[in-house]
Amino acid sequence: MTDVEDEQGPTRAGFVALIGEPNAGKSTLLNRMVGAKVSIVTHKVQTTRARIRGVAMEGQSQIVFVDTPGLFRPRRRLDRAMVAAAWGGAADADVVVLLIEAHRGMTEGVKAILATLRDRVGKRPVALAINKIDRVKAESLLALSGEMNEAFPFERTFMISAERGYGTEDLKRWLGSMLPEGPWLYPEDQLADLPMRMIAAEMTREKLTLRLHQELPYELTVETEAWEERKDGSARVDQIVYVAREGHRGIVLGKGGETIKAVGQAARAEMEEFMGRKVHLFLTVKVKENWLEDPERYGEMGLDFRDGA
Question: Subunit structure, per the record (predicted)?
């Protein structure tokens, strides 16, 4: 069979869930696979709240990635809703990829995931991706791979660096071959099925998270309140940053408003690069003391309020 005939073979499409502990590199891998930034990436754990779907093409296969929140021991309603979303994403997928960090190995958190993984995903194929391989020696990788495969019957094991791109093409090709035959689910040039309003809100939330570090852990959310398409091709975007306490408002604003101004500039630049056009971004900071108990906010984040009960 020629390469051309091979390329014209049956189309495939399906969902791939990326699961793992917080900060394992799921969002970085999603962005690498899709070839564009569609998921929030920070050095803080638990920053991915919604099941973000990124769409990647691999030959005749369309891979729809479900980037799930990290799996951890939930304490609050938001935590519980995030963990429920993660397991829900895995249960709905055609293929599951468990990401672990090479230098951390089989942690207690990974053991907890493995303990319930088969019950959660049924007979779906599960691949292991050992990420951040550039941080450890080869013999350590082989030992970790053996230990993990003794603990769970993975279909395949991949050694990757999501950040640098090592091994990710092999993983992508394998995923494409594992999907069921069928028509593509999205237009070929579509990167994500999140509305642009939500992607824009995620971009601003990422900049806030990076800027504020430990000062304001998880008690803020960003909502795109209004989106106006202008005649000159630009867009006006109005967003509200909700914080839980009055004291947090001052932290987000910064001295003389310098923090929110810097965040706005960084978020606007990323939106312009992503959309390929000019963006006019306006940010407002509001105190909403009970937003962590507001069902509407959970819906905005793609989470189910009832899952946090």
Answer: Monomer.
The tens digit of pLDDT for each residue in 65-87 reads 876 655 445 455 555 555 555 54
Q: Give the separation between CA 276 and CA 8, rounded to whole angstroms.
A: 32
Residues 40 and 76 in one domain: yes
Establish whether 23 is an annotated binding residue: yes
Determine whether the annotation assigns residue 27 to a binding site: yes
Count of structural domains, the chain? 2
Q: Is residue 286 a known part of a binding site?
A: no
**Of the candidates 152, 178, 204, which is a domain's last residue?**
178
What span, in angstroms and rounded, lies between the C-alpha atoms of 132 and 90? 22
The annotation status of 294 as a binding-site residue, yes or no, is no
User: Is residue 165 annotated as involved in ligand binding?
Assistant: no
Q: How far apart, in Å, do the first and last CA atoms of the chain sit?
A: 55
CA distance 133 to 272: 33
- 131 a known binding residue? yes
Q: Is 133 annotated as a binding residue?
A: yes
Residue 264 is labelled as binding a ligand: no
Structure tokens at 85: 């979303």
Q: Show the domain range for 40.
A: 3-178
User: Which pLDDT score, from 0 to 100, does residue 102 have?
Assistant: 95
Q: Is 134 annotated as ligand-binding? A: yes
- What pLDDT score was predicted for residue 151? 94
